[in-house]
Amino acid sequence: MLLPNTVNDTTIRKAIRKAAEEAGGSLADDDIRIRRCPCDSLVNLELPPGWIIEGHDPGGVAVRSPGGGQSGGVDLPGSGSLTVGLNFLINTYDPSQQTDNREVAGRGYAGKGIIPPDNPATSKQIKVAVFDSGFLPGANYLSDSYLLSTTSCTNDALDPAKTNALGWNFTIEGDEKTTTDLTPVHHGSRVANLLVRQFSNSNIVPKIVPMKVLNGHNQGDLYGLMCAMKTAQKNGVKVFNMSLGYYGGLDSLFRKYIAEAHRAGIWIIVAAGNHLVDSTSLNRDLTTLNPQFYPAMFAAEFDRVVPVTTVSRDVNGLVVACIRQNYAKEYVVGAMDNSVPCYFRMHDGPGSSVLDIYGTSYASPVVAGWIARKLVESPGVLNSRADISGQISNTNQGTGNQVMANKYIKSLP
Predict the structure, then answer these.
(1) How far is CA 407 from CA 186, 288, 318, 401, in A?
(2) H-helix or E-strand spanning residue 43
(3) Region label for 80, one of left (φ > 0), alpha (ψ between -120 and 50) or beta (otherwise)
(4) Are 357 and 95 within 8 A, CB to CB?
(5) pLDDT (tens digit, 9 = 90+) per residue, 58-117?
(6) Are 16 and 26 in contact (CB under 8 A)?
(7) Contact, 287 vs 240, CB < 8 A?
């Protein structure tokens, strides 16, 4: 929820303890966990198992005792006009990420993928935030020259004394500056690698801001994501890549942060979402999906939110979303590798072979990199998602009804 910055933790705990008594129970200070966003007035409250904290009309907060018991209103400054949301858990939903067995994540091939070298003479740059599992430094994913030193905040204002080239950590488990990618398959590092590849043979340097919102199991929460979004926005980031999401209902607080980024002119590139099983009867159309997949579904309202899915093209020119991946002809953009169908081929870190990796998580950074490059190379050409199809070559167009204009963006090697 959003609270005035003047409301301190002691005041919050006192109000919740009183509300718990009204609900017929009791809570100690240590039972009330409070997370605060360094660059915003966003606050996350967590109570012991069984206790529920919820929005309470009009514009307030209440706690409910275990077992669905009675509720008690939380008397906080600003009650009556608070913005409150559920803290949905977020995940990558990538089939390749559901195991620690790296062999399942892709198929090995000889050779190595090479990130293009930086051009230190260029002044053309663009800031891109990768909201993911962090970044693995010292590996072959990216050189440090691609990382942007960003600033966190003190009392909601950017603080030059708080800078970090490896981004920021907004997970429940980690401290602010510990941003190493702990996922077995280096999910965030792979995403950053694919994004930067889209600048091959250009004189533009993408400056990557790793925003760690997923832990070593590729899990996080909306609070961490929204807090990271505000931090990135204040640092002047122009493109967001979110290879993650949740299946569930619309969260009004999350919508507020998407809307603020959209008003600031930020492009928000998101995974269209995956399913862990495949069935011919499975509905994967985002427009009719139930439960819905967010943040991809925000594309129905905001025209710089761009969901992305992996597509293949058969010998007859039919363009379809790959198995288990969501689609929507109204607002989903297709992405494809330059050499293998339904996978993205990449180098998987120091001393390893090239792997083919699968999922909308890896389609998203291909389009994020393409859009970021286009914003610098051709200013004013892209103003909304509707402009994308006209900038894709007609050779990358087929037939069908699952992605916008039946076109797709090909990843660069």
Answers:
(1) 29, 22, 10, 10
(2) strand 43-46
(3) left
(4) no
(5) 556 777 777 666 677 788 776 555 677 778 899 998 765 433 333 333 344 333 454 655
(6) no
(7) no
